[in-house]
Design brief:
84% helix; 94 residues; single chain; mainly alpha; 3 helices; 0% strand
């Protein structure tokens, strides 16, 4: 091996990419997932809070209108919730 080859190898070693750090990669992925979970929780909590406030405001009027059909409406809402859950499961990224 010549002196030029040795110098070239030394220069190439200096510019080599860093070794992969699996702990760092996992930490970054964990932070990303935590942020995603917090955003999702905030969205669901906000919608729940809005639905609760709307229900409280409209409860007296709704109770008069819906009292005769409560079982029918409960079944409808259960079906709607099951359908929404199914759609969310289909759209969930893998």
């Amino acid at each position: 091996m010549t002196d030029v080859d040795a110098r070239l190898r030394a220069l190439l070693r200096e510019d080599a990419p860093p070794a992969r750090d699996s702990h760092f990669r996992l930490a970054v992925l964990e932070r990303m997932e935590r942020r995603h979970a917090v955003r999702k929780l905030a969205a669901v909590g906000g919608l729940g809070l809005a639905a609760t406030a709307l229900t409280i405001v409209l409860a007296p009027e709704l109770s008069r209108m819906l009292a005769p059909n409560v079982l029918l409406l409960a079944g409808g809402f259960l079906g709607l919730a099951a359908g929404a859950w199914g759609v969310l499961q289909i759209q969930r990224p893998v």
